[in-house]
Amino acid sequence: MKFLKKPRHFKDVIEDEMIQTYAGKASKKTMDVFGISLTILGLIFLGYKRVHPELEIAGYTLLYSICYMLVLYSFFYYFYTRNLTGEDGDDKK
Predict the structure, then answer these.
(1) Cβ neighbours for 39, distance < 8 A, ≥ 6 positions apart
(2) For the CA atoms of 40, 41, 44, 49, what is the dihedral angle to 10 degrees?
(3) Helix axis angle, 55-83 relative to 17-47, nearest 10°?
(4) Alpha-carbon distance 55 to 26, whole Å?
(5) Is the dihedral of CA 52, 53, 57, 60 positive or negative?
(6) Is residue 46 packed enough to be buried (19+ CB in 10 Å), middle (13-18) or exposed (0-12)?
(7) Where are the alpha helices (DSSP H) in the chain?
(8) What is the largest CA-CA distance in the chain?
(9) Would you tell me how many other CB atoms lie within 10 Å of the CB of residue 42?
(10) Which of 90, 35, 28, 25 has the alpha carbon at shortest distance from 62?
(11) Cβ distance 35 to 66 under 8 Å?
């Protein structure tokens, strides 16, 4: 029954490269699907602005939020490629 008890202290959390790769691919795919969906929805809202004028504000809000997301993604991509890789392209760890 000793093995059913929770350990009291963790020294280190081990995370290998495969988990990091999967997390990176999952977040990239999420950004792709979310970005494309909001872009299409924003354009649809702008298309219906003559029928429903209140949708124009929502459409612009969605499109500007996608622009902000792309700028933020570019900043973090630049930051991580500059700070986490060495001059020869190898990871700094």
Answers:
(1) 62, 63, 66
(2) -140
(3) 160
(4) 31
(5) positive
(6) middle
(7) 17-47, 55-83
(8) 69
(9) 20
(10) 35
(11) yes
pLDDT digits 0-9 by tens, 17-50:
888 888 889 999 999 999 999 999 999 999 999 9
Cβ–Cβ contacts within 10 Å for residue 45, how many? 20
Indicate the pTM of the whole model: 0.68
Position of tokens 């995370």?
Answer: 15
Q: What are the tokens at 68?
A: 């902000």
Residue 16 banded pLDDT, cuts 50, 70, 90? confident
- Token reading at 23: 């997390």
